[in-house]
Design a protein that fits this description.
- The complex is a heterodimer of chains A (259) and B (232).
- With 259 residues, chain A is mainly alpha-helical.
- Chain A contains eight helices and no strands.
- Chain A folds into two domains: 124 residues; 135 residues, no CATH class.
- In chain A, helix 1 runs parallel beside helix 4.
- The two termini of chain A are 27 Å apart.
- Chain B is globular.
- In chain B, 35% of the residues lie in helices and 27% in strands.
- The longest helix of chain B has 13 residues.
- Chain B is built from nine helices and ten strands.
- Chain B has 232 residues and is an alpha/beta fold.
- The chains are: A mainly alpha (259), B alpha/beta (232).
Chain lengths: 259, 232
C-alpha cells in the first residue's frame, strides 16, 4: 500500500515542482548563455550581468523556500483540509500516509538540492571550483592533517535524516494544530515557531556542553571534537525525526479532528 | 448474525460543547436506516466518528465487530456532506484513485453511471458545478460493493430532479446484503426507502425504531412524527 500512496503523492507533487524546476532551468540556461556570449563591457552589459546574477541568486533562494512551502501546502491539503475526508477514509494506515509523505518530501528536497548543485557546476567555471576544493583539501589534510572519514559519514547521515526531520516538524505542528476547532492554521504556525525555538534552545545548550566536555576529554584535539560533534548532530537529527513522526502519527491517528 | 455497526455510549465533546451524549445503537445488515434530526443534532458528528474522521471523547464504535481502523474503511463507502475530491485532476483520475485503493470498486459501474449523466471521464473536475461534483462523488461511492454505505445529507441543496437521480442511484446500485445509513432532515424525500429510523436531538438518541412500526402503531408517517418531535 505504501507504494500506491507514494506514487499518488509523488505524481500530485510533481504538478507543483516540475514547473518550478522548469522556470529555474530556463533561468540557469539564460545566465549560462550570457556568460558564454560575454558581451563587451559597458553600462548595459554590466546592468544585464547584475540582473542575471540577482535573478539566479533569487532563483536559488526561491527554490529552497518554495520546496518547503509546496511540501507544507501539500500535507495541509491532503490531511487537514476537505481532502482529508478522502485521505483518512482510504483503507490506508496513518503510519503509511505519514511515511509516504516523508519519503515524498525527501525525494523532492533531494531533487531541488541536486538541481541547485548542478546549477553551481554549470554556471561557475570548473577550474575555479577545483581551485577552491584544492585549497580546502590543503588546509584540512596537509596543514591540520585531519581524518574526516567518520565525521563525513555522520554528516552525510545527518543530511539524509534532515530531509525527513525538516518536513516532519511542519507535519507534527499541523497534526497538533488540527486538534483545535478554530484557527487551525494559525495554531499550527504558532506551534511550529514554539517547537523550533525549543529545539534550537535545547540543541544549542546541549552542543555547548558537548563541545566543552569533548574538549576537556580530548585535551583540545580537533579530530575528536569534530567526531563527537558530527555523531551528536546525527543523533539529534534522528531524535527529532522520531519525535516528530510519533507526534504526527499520534495526533492524526489517535486524535483526528476533521471538524 | 452480528450487526454491521454498533455504537456504545458514544460521546463527543468539542471543548465545553457536547455534540453527542451517550448514544448507543446498532444497525442490522441489509437494511436502510435514516439518521434523522434537525440541523445541529449531531448527525454529521456521528457519521464522522464512524468513519474515523473524529475521535470519540468516550464510548466505542464497532463496524462488523471491529474498532474503527484500516479494516473498517475497506467495508464502508462514505459520502461526506462536502466536496472532498482533489480538484487538480480529471474525473478519470479520481476513478483511478478509487480503483487503486478500494478492492471492491467497480469501474464499469462508475463509467455507466457517468454516461447516464453525460459526463465524460476526461472532464476536468475544477470547472464542474457543485451539484455535478456531488453527483460524481455519489457515483464513486455507489460504485463500490461495500458492506455499509454511509451517506451524509446526499440530497441537501439539490433540485428535485437531481434528488430523484441521487435516490435512484442509491437504490439501484447497492448490494441487497449491504446496509445504508443515510442522514438527512428532508424526510419526505427519503421516507419511502427507509427500513429503520434513528432520531437524534441535540446530541441525544431520541428514538430507534422500524419505519413500518411507526406507521402501524402510531398511524403516522415518519415525516409527520419528525415534525411533531422536532417542532420549534
Amino acid at each position: 500500500m505504501l507504494g500506491k500512496v507514494f506514487q499518488y503523492d509523488f505524481r500530485n507533487c510533481a504538478r507543483y515542482f516540475l514547473p518550478m524546476y522548469l522556470i529555474f532551468a530556463v533561468l540557469m540556461l539564460l545566465t549560462k548563455l550570457y556568460f558564454l556570449i560575454s558581451p563587451a563591457e559597458g553600462p548595459l552589459s554590466n546592468a544585464l550581468l547584475s540582473l542575471m546574477i540577482s535573478s539566479y541568486v533569487f532563483g536559488v533562494f526561491a527554490m529552497a523556500i518554495l520546496t518547503s512551502v509546496f511540501l507544507i501546502y501539500y500535507f495541509y491539503r491532503k490531511c487537514i483540509s476537505s481532502e482529508g475526508y478522502l485521505t483518512f477514509t482510504l483503507p490506508v494506515s496513518t503510519g503509511t500516509h505519514i511515511v509516504s509523505k516523508c519519503l515524498n518530501g525527501a525525494v523532492w528536497q533531494l531533487f531541488t538540492y541536486l538541481l541547485l548543485i548542478l546549477s553551481i557546476f554549470l554556471l561557475f567555471p570548473m577550474d575555479e571550483l577545483g581551485r577552491v576544493l584544492r585549497i580546502l583539501q590543503y588546509i584540512l589534510f596537509s596543514r591540520i592533517s585531519l581524518d574526516l572519514t567518520v565525521p563525513m559519514i555522520f554528516l552525510s547521515l545527518t543530511l539524509v535524516t534532515q530531509f525527513f526531520a525538516g518536513p516532519l516538524m511542519f507535519y507534527a505542528s499541523m497534526a497538533v494544530g488540527q486538534m483545535v476547532t478554530r484557527h487551525k492554521v494559525l495554531t499550527s504556525i504558532g506551534l511550529y515557531i514554539g517547537l523550533y525555538m525549543v529545539i534550537s534552545l535545547l540543541s544549542s545548550f546541549g552542543f555547548s556542553f558537548l563541545i566543552l566536555g569533548s574538549e576537556i576529554l580530548s585535551g583540545g584535539d580537533i579530530q575528536t571534537t569534530l567526531t563527537i560533534y558530527s555523531i551528536a548532530t546525527f543523533a539529534l537529527a534522528l531524535a527529532e525525526t522520531v519525535l516528530f513522526y510519533f507526534l504526527t502519527w499520534f495526533f492524526l491517528g489517535r486524535k483526528l479532528n476533521l471538524s | 448474525m452480528n450487526p454491521i455497526l454498533e455504537c456504545r455510549h458514544l460521546t463527543k465533546q468539542f471543548g465545553r460543547f457536547t455534540a453527542l451524549s451517550d448514544v448507543s445503537f446498532s444497525l442490522k445488515r441489509g437494511r436502510i436506516t435514516g439518521l434523522l434530526g434537525p440541523n445541529g443534532s449531531g448527525k454529521t458528528t456521528m457519521i464522522k466518528l464512524i468513519n474515523g474522521l473524529l475521535t470519540p471523547s468516550y464510548g466505542e464504535i464497532l463496524v462488523d465487530g471491529q474498532p474503527v481502523g484500516t479494516q473498517t474503511k475497506k467495508i464502508i463507502s462514505y459520502l461526506p456532506d462536502r466536496t472532498y475530491l482533489p480538484m487538480t485532476g480529471k474525473i478519470s483520475d479520481v476513478i483511478r484513485l478509487f480503483k487503486n485503493f478500494y478492492d471492491d470498486f467497480d469501474e464499469n459501474r462508475a463509467l455507466d453511471m457517468l454516461k447516464i449523466l453525460s459526463l465524460d471521464p476526461s472532464f476536468r473536475l475544477r470547472p464542474l458545478s457543485k451539484g455535478t461534483l456531488e453527483k460524481v462523488q455519489l457515483i464513486l461511492v455507489m460504485s463500490r460493493r461495500a458492506q455499509l454505505y454511509i451517506l451524509d445529507e446526499p440530497i441537501a441543496g439539490v433540485d428535485p430532479a437531481a434528488r430523484d437521480f441521487i435516490l435512484d442511484t442509491i437504490l439501484n446500485h447497492y448490494d441487497q446484503q449491504a446496509s445504508i445509513l443515510i442522514s438527512t432532515h428532508l424526510i419526505a424525500d427519503v421516507e419511502s426507502i427507509l427500513d429503520d429510523v434513528i432520531f437524534l436531538k441535540q446530541g441525544n438518541l431520541l428514538l430507534q425504531a422500524e419505519a413500518e412500526d411507526i406507521r402501524r402503531k402510531d398511524g403516522k408517517t415518519i415525516d409527520q412524527l419528525f415534525r411533531e418531535v422536532f417542532r420549534c
